[in-house]
Amino acid sequence: MKSIISVFLCVLITAITVQFWPFQQVMADGLSVSAQAAILINADTGEAIYEKNAHLKLSMASTTKIMTALLLAEQNTPEKTVVTTKQMVTVEGSSMGLLEGDTVSYKALLCGMLLSSGNDAANTTAIILGGSLPNFAIMMNAKAKEIGMTDTHFVTPSGLDDADHYSTAFDMALLASYAMKNADFKEVASSKEMIVYYGNPPYKRTLGNHNKLLSMYDGAEGVKTGFTKKSGRCLVSSAERDGKSVIAVTLNAPDDWDDHIAMFDFGFSQLVCKDITYKFEDPTLPVVGGKFDRVKLNVSECKVGLLNKEYSEITYEIILPPFLYAPVVVNKEIGSVIYKLNGEQIAESKIWAVGNVEAKVSEPKSKTDLFFDKLQMLLQM
Hints:
Elements: H1 2-19, E1 37-42, E2 48-52, H2 65-73, E3 81-83, H3 86-89, E4 103-105, H4 106-114, H5 119-130, H6 133-147, H7 169-179, H8 183-189, E5 193-199, E6 202-208, H9 213-216, E7 220-228, E8 232-241, E9 244-251, H10 256-270, E10 272-275, E11 284-288, E12 294-299, E13 303-306, E14 314-319, E15 324-325, E16 333-341, E17 344-353, H11 367-380
Parallel strand pairs: 11-15
Antiparallel strand pairs: 1-2, 1-9, 3-4, 4-5, 5-6, 7-8, 8-9, 10-13, 11-12, 12-17, 14-16, 16-17
Helix pairs in contact: 2-4, 2-5, 4-5, 5-6
């Protein structure tokens, strides 16, 4: 009887474990997170350092605005302005305070999305760029495909709940890594607050960032918070220390701030920053028509933070002409070194000329040389 009860209890415990597995905490060398799904990646390489249900499709709330803000930032027209319509500003949820008839710049809209998490800013952006919310969703999904977000589908520009609006921790990490390479996006996402002007007429406003990690964690740079009752607390963040860069994502995380701090600490403990600057066997290049026949080369220093195992897998692509024509000017950029991991570029060094090489001045020919040159020309006729 006791044996039957023991077997029954084992089966019951196993069933409960399987049923609630997505909500369990996962441990990795002492790392524990509260999130239903999470991932930590090396921002330079995309390599996963830690993951938990990273490919589970979940709603992602206002972290959606990373994509909306990216598409706006890629317009590269921050000073361009628009006058809002009722359709643009009529949306539920968080707001940057836009009213119908306000004049607002693209830069202010970017701040409104990434700092205030304004659904009105996201709605306005969608209608400006797409003409309508459905058309903008097509743009969002096309960009997601370009980035490689294979388990994502966007419906709303702000992250309001919809059954067909979902992503994964992995895909959101890809998106954040891509977006943080845009200078305008990164500037706003990493700011604790920014001063902007909008209204009718525009007047000065100060928008504060909802991302508490910017104040809580040394080296935090962004990226975006999110919350709905369906999604729970969602957070996409990035941090940089000592040449090491990481991106963390949690979806449905009751304790997201502490989750991300723990993930950052774990990531930085796993990454090692090393100098990978390429060393030429012969750091010179031939020069044609110069007072010297070669010029010395210099390669700009390159340091990256990688997992130890990755350093042996780095490959180099040297972009350099076979020779230079004189004159060569000191510090002239003449090429580059592309550092790759798994076929993807992770860093770049510039190659410079160390010294000047003046052009060789030909000595004037004597009368005798000129005579024989003319004679040879006549014989060839």
